[in-house]
Design a protein that fits this description.
The protein has a two-stranded antiparallel sheet. Strands 3-4 form a two-stranded antiparallel sheet. The model has no long low-confidence stretch (mean pLDDT 91). The longest helix is centred in the middle third of the chain and has 18 residues. It is built from 6 helices and 4 strands, in the order ααααββαββα. The chain is 49% helix and 9% strand. The radius of gyration is 18 Å and the shape is globular.
């Protein structure tokens, strides 16, 4: 494991949320309460969750801020992360619950969900920055995709996101190009 469980979970949740932004296909994947429920099913959060239109709108609003973390290098991420922590009034504390060992929460359980998502993502990026693993924060290498991901592979060699089956698609394209060159 590259990162501790809660860091990995929060990095996955952040990339999932960023990947709901309209991308190369111009489709927003977080517009309905059903989309919101899908996000929460894959990325569970503790604390108060209202599951209403206002909370959905607030969550949608944090996506561009999170996306910035994939568009900068390690040093460029520091002021973004610090701003997120400051805006969320982060006050880290150790907690243990739901079968998970000690980990950090930095907002109260009744803080708005969007604030908790932003602060927990910022804390996860603190770990990435401190571990000097920012090269694992990536944008998909597929020609037609701008999805984001964090490479959790042991050797750090992942090149494609998981949202559009990009790895398989690009491998098929490369195979077809090689085959066409051999028959030409």
């Amino acid at each position: 494991m590259v990162f501790i469980h809660d860091t990995e979970q929060n990095l996955r949740a952040a990339s999932y949320l960023v990947n709901t932004l309209p991308g190369y296909d111009d489709e927003d994947a977080l517009t309905t309460l059903d989309d919101f429920d899908d996000y929460l099913r894959v990325n569970p959060y503790t604390g108060v969750i209202r599951r209403d239109a206002a909370e959905l709108a607030a969550l949608r609003d944090v996506r561009p801020r999170l996306r910035q973390l994939w568009e900068v290098d390690r040093d460029g991420a520091v002021p973004i992360v610090n701003e997120m922590l400051r805006d969320g009034r982060a006050l880290p504390r150790l907690v243990i619950h739901d079968g998970f060992d000690w980990h950090i929460h930095a907002t109260s359980d009744d803080a708005p969900l969007a604030t908790r998502v932003l602060v927990e993502a910022a804390l996860a990026f603190v770990d990435v920055i401190r571990a000097d693993e920012y090269d694992r924060v990536r944008i998909c290498a597929a020609d037609d995709c701008d999805g984001v991901y964090v490479d959790f592979s042991k050797n750090g060699s992942k090149r494609y996101c998981d949202i559009g089956n990009c790895g398989n698609r690009m491998n098929v394209n490369a195979y077809r190009q090689r085959k066409a060159r051999r028959t030409a």
